[in-house]
Structure formats: C-alpha cells, structure tokens
Amino acid sequence: MFEPNSTIGWATSRLMATARDLLTFLRAPKLPDNGAQIAGQMKGKPSDLIWLFLINCMIVAASAIVLFPVMLAFDVSMSNSMSDLFQRPVWQLLLIVVIAGPIVEELMFRSWLSGSPRLLIPFFGLILWMALTYSYEQLGWAGPAAMGTAPLLAVIAGVVLIGVIIFWKRPVPGWYVRIFPVVFWIQALLFGSVHVFNYAGDNPAALLPFVLPQTVGGLIWGYARIRHGWWANIAMHMAYNLIATSGLVYVLLTRPDVL
Fold first, then answer.
1. Considering the domain boundaries, does residue 14 fall inside one?
2. How far apart are CA 59 and CA 234, in angstroms?
C-alpha cells in the first residue's frame, strides 16, 4: 500500500510496531530484569512515546465517537464537582487538571509499579495512612483520634523513611514479580473506576462505560511507566489531560447543558 521508504510507510511501520509491542505486553505484563531496573536501563526510546501517545489518542477518540452520543441519549452529565471545576479561571483549570492532577494520580497509581522496594514502601505507607484515616472517619475507631493526626503521620513518615533508606538498592522482590500481571491490570481498572465520580446519572452502573478512556489510559500509561521510566507516564498523562480539557472547554462553550 505504501512504499517502504516513504514517509507514510515509515510512520505506519513505527505505529504498528508500537501497537504490537503494547499488545504483547498487555497479554502478559512483565517487568524488566532487576539489573536493568537498578541501572535505570528501561527498554524503549523517548521518541517511541510519540507513537504510543498517538495510539492512546486514537483509541480514546474512537471511544468518544460512541460514548458521546450515548451520554446525550441517556442524560448523563458531569458531576457537580467537575462542573464547578470548569467554572474556574482557565489558569486554575490548567494548573489543577493538566499539571497537579496527573502528578498526584501517577504518584498514587503508577509511581511504584516497577516494584522497586524504595517505591513500594512509600506506597504502602500511603495505603496505611488512608486505611487508618478511613477507619477513624467511617468506622469510629478511636486509634488515630487518640494518638493525634500529626503524630500518627509523623510515625508513618518516619517508618517509611527508614524503610526507604534500608531497602534503597534492594532488587524487586520475587513475590512482586510473580503477581505483577495481576497488579498491573488492577491498577488500570481501579484507576478507571474511580473516575466514575466525574459523572452524574440516575443509574451508577450505567456510568461505568464512560470511564473507558481512563481505563485505557491506566493500561497505556502503566506500559509507559515500565518501558520508559517514571517520567514517561506523567508526561503522557499531562498531554492527554491538556487535549481532553480543551475538548471539554469547547463542549462547555457550545453545549453548557451537558456539563
């Protein structure tokens, strides 16, 4: 169809090669060997992210073509919190959605995904803090209240710091390597699911299809995290949110009733 040495043929070849590698990884998610992770030698060139991001946008665009009419037909709208967010000045919107949001979400969902102990320990510390806070607020457990929020946070932070220092150069644990495929898919599905709160409707279950773009992002950005390192998934998330935000601002201006 295209000459092998043509620009279109070269671009198509690169795009297909990236898609094949992505699909191979998603079928059986696998970590690089410990030596490569310790040395920071991740497989993949930074320029490959352009093709990966293009695939990300193509999938999301195809999903939006189907989901947007369904959104209108079933009277699904943005949640009050999201609507309020888009009422902010543009600079605040960009700061929250394009810069702060991706950094915070990637730190929570994918910064630790490589399985390095120095990254897993802070993640487990965060989970512990969230669990203790939830137990206090929802279950009425008096532990955090009796101990005090600040001292409790200081204790957890101290334990995390000590653990990070001790395990700084330790390789990825064998148990994590074995469960990595499950962990990888769980983080993507969980990341997508939490975005259901971006929408409002009479049937919460009917809102789940609308988190497909975020779920796809969780898979592709997780792949970028493993192949290219911690910066790649953050950069891709920021770029995606910039494009998505631009689209939502356009919808807000042309169809304010949707938001």
1. yes
2. 19
Please tell me the predicted confidence (pLDDT) of residue 163: 82
Contact in structure between 251 and 71 (CB atoms under 8 Å):
no
Helix (H, G, I), strand (E, B) or coil at 139: coil
The domain containing residue 159 runs over which residues? 117-169
Instruction: Tell me the one-letter amino acid at 75.
Output: D
d(CA 29, CA 27): 6
Q: Count up the domains in the chain and report the number.
A: 2
What is the rounded average pLDDT for all residues in the chain? 82
Residue 44's pLDDT band, with cuts at 50, 70 and 90, is: low
* C-beta separation of 56 from 236 below 8 A: yes
Distance, in Å, from the CA atom of 158 to the CA atom of 241, rounded to the nearest integer, reads 34
Residue 2 included in any domain: no
Is the Cβ–Cβ distance between 44 and 227 less than 8 Å? yes
Angle at CA of residue 25, ends 19 and 27, nearest 5°: 105
- pLDDT of the residue at 256: 56
Q: At what angle do helices 48-73 and 212-228 cross, to 10 degrees?
A: 170
